[in-house]
Amino acid sequence: MFDLDRWQEIFETIRKNKLRTFLTSISVASGIFILVILLGFGQGMQNGIQKEFEADATNRIWVWSEVTTKEYKGLNPGRRIQFRNEDYNNLTSIYNKEIEYKSDLFRVFGVTINYKEEVVSYGIQGISPNYQQIENQKIVLGRYINYADLESKNKVIVISNKIKNELLKGVENPLEEYLQLSGINFKIIGVYTDEGGDREEDRVFIPISTAQNIFNGSNRIANLAFTLKPEKDFETALAVSKQFTEEIKQYLKQVHTVAPDDSAVNAFNVMEEAKRYYTLTSNIAFFFWFVGICTIIAGVVGVSNIMLIIVKERTREIGIRKALGAKPWSIIWMIMQESIFVTSVAGFAGLILSMALLEVVGPNIEVDYVLNPSVNFSMAITMVIVLIVAGALAGFFPAWKAATIQPIKALSHE
Known about the structure:
The chain contains 13 helices and 14 strands. It is of the alpha+beta class. The protein has two domains: 4-53 and 277-411, no CATH class; 60-271, no CATH class. The strands form three sheets. A six-stranded mixed sheet has the order 11-6-3-13-1-14. The model has no long low-confidence stretch (mean pLDDT 82).
């Protein structure tokens, strides 16, 4: 039941101690403010890292070769290991059941791209059809390279949306146009976009069989790329991915006579990298929670101390109330109401300010690995409710002390 007299009394107490109440409120509000801002940036880091990994398939395995660093089976170090078509064909045959998407890759160097009077230099790569899924590319116009293009060694090319806008300005239908590579016409069959942004769109793609045939590639391959079939959970997928990575490295080392501990055959497992990043963000989030909660605890302790001071100042008044027949729980509730009121107002003030700041500033933050820092509103409300409960507990113990004071001692208190 609403007790107007009680609330007037609370406001009168606050009015008499404006500075003390203000400073206490600041400590509580700053606690919830700091916690929300820290959690917002923690979420922003998770968003940023997730965005980085969206650029490619999250279970991608990328294999490449380097120069041998150790003598092995009579062969000197310093040998350049070169992958061949048969390496790719054998691996895809051996691990056919495990592999989801696969592609070999041949890089074309020293070749410019001509379109009418324009001469530009972009990365030219020969690939297989599954490369679209491995790189998480989306076709916005036309189609991607297919297996018929590989079989027939078609002179076709897929360009990025960025290249279309820069090179084919004003062209209504780029699918009717041709680009020249070393004076050879390649028909544009598709336009793609990449989640990785502009840096991933500085490339054009042609069938790897065509690239090897025209640009003296013979049967050479620069890289191998795979993704594995989905597993029931991340940990299982990670374990399978690590095992697969080690097995193909050892297979290629054996085929090319490379020492088992030589780095001449290497691989990058995106899942292992993702695991490290997500573990890091989890640790950072835990640290943010720890700092924020400690700040809130400091504010709640401040409320408790203020309540103790209030009880000390109002000891004679409490004694008079008890002498007039006031119940212990009415004394407790009187003290707790003030504690809950101060904590609630300060907590919601800190919440509103922090959420407003994240809403205004968050979308405009441009920092590596931080994207749109934000906090779930229901979680924020839950934090404030927990804070109010903590404030109630902070007021309870001083209130209980007040309720147990003997009236005769309270009346004689100076």
